[in-house]
Structure formats: C-alpha cells, structure tokens
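Issue 218. Parser rejects a valid record. Input:
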Amino acid sequence: MVTVNNRRSWSSAALLSCSIQLISIVSTSCFSWSPLNHRQHTQFATLKPSSLQPYYSNSGGYEWKLNVASGDIATTTREKLETLATIANDALTEHGSDIFKSFKARVAVMSQSADEDTQQDALRLGLVAAENIRKEDELVASLPFYDTDGSGLALAPHLATKLVYKDKLPEGYDGWTGDAGLLAMLLLNEMARLNVDGSKGIDLPTRKDGIPSLMSAWVTSLPSPEEMSNLHPLMWDEDDQEVLQSSSTKKIYRIMDDIEDDSSWLDENAWSLDRETFPETIKLQIGDSIEERQCFSTEGFRYAVSLVRSRSFFVDGSLRLLPYLDYANHDDFDSFELVGGGIGMLWGSAKGALLKSGKSLREGDEVCISYGPKGGADYLLDHGFVPPMCKASSTGGAVTSELTFEVDDTDRFRDDKLDILEYETYDLAPMEPSQVFDVTGGRPDPAMYQFLRLAKLGGKDAFLLESIFRKEVWGFMSVPVSEDNERAAVTAVIDACENALKEMDEIIDEEGSALSPKLQLCALVRGSERQALERTLEYVTQEAEALDLKEYYQERRLKDLGLDSDWSPEDDDVSFGGTRVPGGADYDW
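Output the parser choked on:
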C-alpha cells in the first residue's frame, strides 16, 4: 500500500531520502550484459516495474533500460536524475567523512549503451571519478568494518549472532541460508528500526554520529519487493522460477527451500513470540510517500535474502554488506574485486574494504568493479544478470555447470564411507555425503573423481574399506582403483550430464519463439551450461573408451612390492625391491 502526499514542495529530509534512493539505480534497475552495467535500481516514485524493458545492444546481448519516451519525458528524466544526483552528493559530502576514509567518487547521470538509437532511453546513475585516477590499482574508496561493535556502516554475519540477535538465537545457530541469511536478518532489523510508526526491531548496533543518517538513506534506497519481483530470480513468480529450475544445474528450488526452512524456524522460535519487536509488516518513508512492506515474515525474509545476494561481497574472509560501495557497477574487464586491507585512522590502522580502480580514469569516468569469477547461473541467482564472459561462445568463455553426486542411501557400505568422509578427508572441512562440483567442459575436477571412486567402491574393491586401510583409503581414491570402479565413476558423470541436458531440451521444446525478458535470461544461462555439459560429456565419453589403458590399484601395489615382472632363471642377481628368485634368499639359519 502506498500513500502519496501531493505537496509540491518537499522537505529537505524527504528530498534527501528520495535522492539517495535514486542512487540505487546504479545497483539493480538496468540489468545488462554490457561491461558497464549490472544490477541498477529504479526507485522513481513514478516508475513502474513494467517500464523495465530489454533490448539487444550492438555490443551483443540483451540489456535492461528505462523505457521512457523520447522528447520531453526523456528530458524530464535526465533533469530529475541530475537534481537527485546533486542532492545525493551533498549528503555524502555532509556525512561521508564520518565513516569513509577515502571516497574519490561522486554520483552522476550517464547513458548505459553505445547504441545511438537507445542512448536517450537508457539513463542511469553511476559512480564516477571525482578526480583523475592516474594509475591502475589506485584507491578510490575505503570503508572500515568496525567488526567488534558494528558501529560503522558495514554489516557482517557475526553481528547477528554475537550482538543484535544474541539473546534470540541459540548458541551456534547455523541456518540453511548460511551467512546470507544472517545478513538478511540484520537488514530486516535495520528496516524495522526505521518504521515510521515507531522504531521496531532491536536497537543495535549503536552507531557513531552521522552514520545513522547514511544508513537510513541507504536502506530506504533499496529496491522495493515489487521492483525485485522483476529484478531478482528469488522474487520471480512461480512459472518463471520453474523455467529457471530446468535451465540450470544450479537449482533455484534448493535456495527457495532453504529460505522457507529458515524463515519458518525463525518465525516459530523468535519472531512470533514477540511481535511488538518483530512485526510482520512495517512502514517506511520512501521519498515523499510511505510504503508498507513485509518484514519479519517468510516473504520479508525472502525479499531480504534477495537483496543480500545481489549486494553483498566476500571480503576479508567474510560475506559483507558494504553500503555505498555496493553501488559500483560490474565490468568484465579492467576492474578489480573489492578487497580487504588496512585503512589509516587517527589512532593507527583498521581493517576495511578497499575499492580500487582497474585502470587509470579521468575525472567523470565511471568507476567499476568486478563481482568475481562466477558462472552464468551464479551471476543470475546472485545479481540478476548474465555478463558477457559467462555467455556460450565458440571460445568457451567462463561457461560452467554443476553436477551433484552423493553416497547412495542403499549402499551396504554407506556407514563406512560416511565415516571416511567425516574423519579421513579434510580436517578443517570434512566432506558431506552429497557433493556439488563445477564442470567447465574440459577435464573434470580430480576431486570429483576422488569422491565418486569412494561413493562407487564395492564388490572386490570393498576390502579397501577395512579398518586397516582407514587412514589411507581417501588417498587411494585420488587415482584409479579398478576398471570396474572407474567405469562406475565415469558412468555416473555421463548419466548426470545426459540427464541435465535432457531436462534442458524439454524446457526448450515448451518455450516457443517469443521469450519474456526473464526467459531470455534463463535461455542465456541454459546456453552457457549446455556448452559446458556437452563438452564435459564428450571428454568423459572418450575417457570411458580408454579405461583399459589406465593403471589401477592392483598394478601399482605389485610394483610397490616388486612383483610386477615375470621371473626367469637368468635373473640371479636381484636387489631389494626387484624381481624375486625362488630359493634365492641367503638366510643365515
């Protein structure tokens, strides 16, 4: 429900909130596959989700744009963006020095495509250099973490369990959604604290002067659930999610199930027990209007997780939300990921996130970062777009797919195998009975074969599961065990690839020719993964035809014992480890 106030003169606070809100265009509204775009937000009070339309750019690939008419409307849109960018920059100037130790960027309006026919219809806000960046790897912005007390802007998962929800969650709480779920809980709490009918949630963490204003502006700039329903797969309708489920081996339903399980547990054990603190809905002041949004509920949690997945970064060993740095766009080329490092402070040095330029920039050039090496499905499920490097091509690109394998529940040796996976694999990260592996179209991951050899171990090879071999058996699995075992492992990969391709073929047959923007994204992911699966299938099929050429455990063991060659009477000079001669031992009885 949206209540609109028709006053023609806005208060400075409302205008400021709306302006910061518009900065989020940088992050989600204009999803694209050009190097200069990613997940830009649209937070216009007058812009409806249906006005987001795709077009095919000259750079190759569908891009999202603001579908505004030419002429007066386009001019009005640019003027509005320029005004709001100015107000946003004034706000950052006023409060930015309270937290940012370096910020050589400003907000500006720019076109998102080199296509002359669409430039006027593709306006957006972005971070641009506020001064000349003279060299690659130069620091553009830095944000301290303040991990101990959370008094800064950055949000980290441990703040949920150790500070904000310390008295609400059991010790050692670990939800199915992992760190993304903990960050989502923190985000919901920040939203609840801004409730216009009185602050809700838990009034933690306590922040330094000036930072609450920056946090408030950032939270209210986030795209609404309605906008995210067009921008992020977790918020898509069921029909589109079903297509994506069949278009990728990375299953969206797994993520949805994790979200539902965690939200159900939280509702039963925390939220529903104290609705005064954890209301199902809240009201936020968004610009000059008040919007009611789901908060501590299943829908609210799903919305928060979608925001976290689209805006978080793994920096300095932890997944984090980094307000304002997260406005930076993705670029496949000439860009760096956000990194952790020391930030000079008055009292010394503190840990924080560093945004560095991937190339020299002149004042006014856009500042971009990389979201890291991921496959197309990961980019879509995290950020809602597929970059050029992840699209299928003759050169392969960064195409990748996932294959999942597990120890069969009916395996008579299952308990022994689970014991080996838990205690004899990796001390810091024991393996689970179900494992997911990436395939890119070449030689499969050796770790995948190692797991499959153990999972398929049986018959005459089962003696390796005896306790005498317990400490060595995992190492044995790193190389072929027997031809039968190797055939079972290779066949498992072939079957997994063929089943995934068959599922994709079925969805292609059902789609038809006219695809919606969401289905176009699914098609991009599907094309990329098909390429990875087909190449992997070709490689493994050839491998299956040459199993007799591999060396197996029996041959290796005979070599170790010196029993790998035929004996002849002429071999009378034998050293230790060589061929044995019957009666040739010189024992002193």
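Fixed in the parser; the record now loads. The chain has a mean pLDDT of 81.
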